[in-house]
Amino acid sequence: MILQHVLRHILGPLMRADRPVFFAWCADGHFRGCVASPAAWIADYPEHRDLHNIKNGVCYWCECPKAEMDQLPGRPYPMRDHGKYRVLSVANTATANARLASFDVHQCSNVFWDLDCVASDLPKPDLLHTMQLGMLKHLLGRLSVFLKQHKHFEAFNNIWLSVHANLEMAQPRRTYEEVSSWQGKEIKIMSRFLVAVLHCALRDPSASLQDVFKQAIECSRALVEFYFYSEYDSHDEQTLGLMSTALQGFHNSKDVFRQFRASKRVTEEGKARRKELTTERDDEELTTERDDELKSMKSKTAAHRECQRKSWN
Ligand SMILES: [Zn+2]
User: Fold this and answer.
1) Are residues 117 and 191 in the same domain?
2) How far is the centre of ligand 1, averaged over its atoms, from the C-alpha of 79 (Å)?
3) Which is the most buried residue in 96, 136, 239, 309, by most CB within 10 A?
4) Ligand 1 centroid to residue 157 C-alpha, Å
5) Where does 59-218 show beta strands of DSSP type E?
6) How remote is the CA of residue 7 from the centroid of ligand 1, in Å?
């Protein structure tokens, strides 16, 4: 509510009937009378979710039901109609609120509904929340459970840590579980070698697992490909076709990970293991640090070094 009050205060001048009209010399050489109106709003998904009064995890462009968000849409869903939401919100009856809820919209006033902008066109998402910290991080979580189940996680980690530095890409220093908080930059680097590492870790499967491993590699490859195409600055029919094929490939093979959706227990185990690994590494670093300190005291007496040791206990 505070957010909406602040926005209403800032955008108030754009809601006035007598708001200023200005004339602009356009690229085609004509002068046009212009009226200021928001056309884009730079924000990440969580902010757009709040700005649009929608529930978490739903699309801010279309009315795709939450339960169908993980499916490849056969046909486009209707675009969000914020004019309709405004009417329902103002009505504030049980039926109107139920209808709003069916569109995953909260009953609450929204300043964008009072402006003459197309509210559903305001979001201009970047890849950070949608792909890097969205789909790719999700894939890593599923892969780790899959690899543990098939006892290939250690091999995967060893190969992951042996990836060489290349150009501006540094050598990975931590395994998947050791990274407590994945950032966009780390996902970006990881996406360059993930499929190759997975391919090597799943080499020589038994006959019964050949298809499963192949499907896991196909699924990961398709999603990484989709991500790479989505990084292009511009698109044409061909690149859009390639994106579409990659997305189709991902949906065709994603069932291989369905049973490996990380449960609460697995997530807790992962956290505990991460803590264990971090403590182990910190202890190692501390020991090395202390060894160095003792070495630097070589010129001092044994009693002095012993005194230093005691101060650490
Ligand atoms: Zn959508």
Assistant:
1) no
2) 8
3) 136
4) 36
5) none
6) 25
C-alpha of residue 61 to centroid of ligand 1, in Å: 5
| CA–centroid distance, residue 62 to ligand 1 (Å) | 4
- pLDDT tens, position by position, for the chain (313 residues)? 788 889 889 888 888 877 778 899 999 999 998 888 888 888 888 888 888 889 998 998 999 998 888 888 888 899 999 889 999 999 999 999 999 999 999 988 888 888 888 888 888 888 887 888 888 888 988 999 999 999 999 999 999 888 888 777 778 888 877 877 788 888 888 888 999 999 999 998 889 999 999 999 999 999 999 999 998 999 999 999 999 999 999 999 999 987 765 555 555 666 666 667 666 666 666 666 666 666 666 556 667 767 766 776 6
Residue 76 Cα, ligand 1 centroid: separation in angstroms?
A: 8
52's tokens = 């649009």
Domain of 285, in residue numbers: 264-308
Domain assignment present for 313: no
Cut 0.85: pTM above it: no
Please count the structural domains in the chain: 3
Task: Give the Å distance between the CA of 44 and the centre of ligand 1.
Answer: 15
Residue 146 sits in the same domain as residue 269: no
* 285 shares a domain with 237: no
130: CA distance to ligand 1 center in Å?
12
Nearby residues of 87 by Cβ (< 8 Å), 6 or more positions away: 96
